[in-house]
Amino acid sequence: MVGLKTRATNSNVEAFIDAVAHPVRKADAFVLLDLYKQITGLKPVMWGPSIVGFGEYSYITKVGKEETFLRHGFSPRKQNLSLYLKAGMELAPDLLPALGKHKTSKACLYINKLADIQIDVLTVLIAKDVEAMEKKYG
Questions:
Q1: Is residue 44 part of a domain?
Q2: Which residues are in the YdhG-like domain (predicted)?
Q3: pLDDT tens figures, 33-70
Q4: Does an H or E element contain 83, and which?
Q5: Range of the domain at 51
Q6: What is the three-class DSSP state of 93?
Q7: 22: helix, coil or strand?
Q8: Is position 24 within any domain?
Q9: Terminus-to-terminus CA distance in the chain, angstroms?
């Protein structure tokens, strides 16, 4: 069985964000970079070619294999900003209606642009994600 394809790399985070073609998405990514640094207290690391991650954790898969993945992070994708906030959304689902225009999946929060949301609510969701991951993985 093949493991995760997304792994931490030595690529430069700021250079990656600076290369984002969409000007609003690029500006929003720099805001998220600062926000995540402030909330997590962790150094950003590129995970694969397009995810900015903060910290990592290990877990055991259903087949008993240990894998490592980013604890917190985001990606300024072509179609939206993808934020990996599963634990935060599970811990505080009541905050999502107050966030503003967004979509969710099992593990991600999708935002077109930061102007569409309440940044203070996003800050709380990220902090809840940090809290939940710390409680679960130490």
A1: yes
A2: 26-128
A3: 999 999 999 999 999 999 999 999 998 888 898 888 99
A4: strand 81-84
A5: 13-137
A6: helix
A7: coil
A8: yes
A9: 28
Amino acid at 63: V
Rounded to 5 degrees, φ, ψ at 43 are -80, 135
Residue at 68: amino acid letter: T
Tokens of 68: 């490592």
What are the helix (H) ranges across 1-138? Answer: 13-18, 23-40, 86-91, 96-99, 119-137
Residue 8 falls within a domain, yes or no?
A: no
Give every CB contact of residue 47 below 8 A, 6+ residues apart in sequence.
Answer: 6, 7, 8, 9, 53, 69, 70, 73
Please check whether residue 96 lies inside any domain of the structure: yes
CATH number of the domain encompassing residue 127: 3.90.1150.200
Please give the C-alpha separations between residue 20 and each of 27, 85, 117, 135, in angstroms, as whole numbers: 9, 22, 21, 34
Residue 101 has pLDDT above 80, yes or no: yes
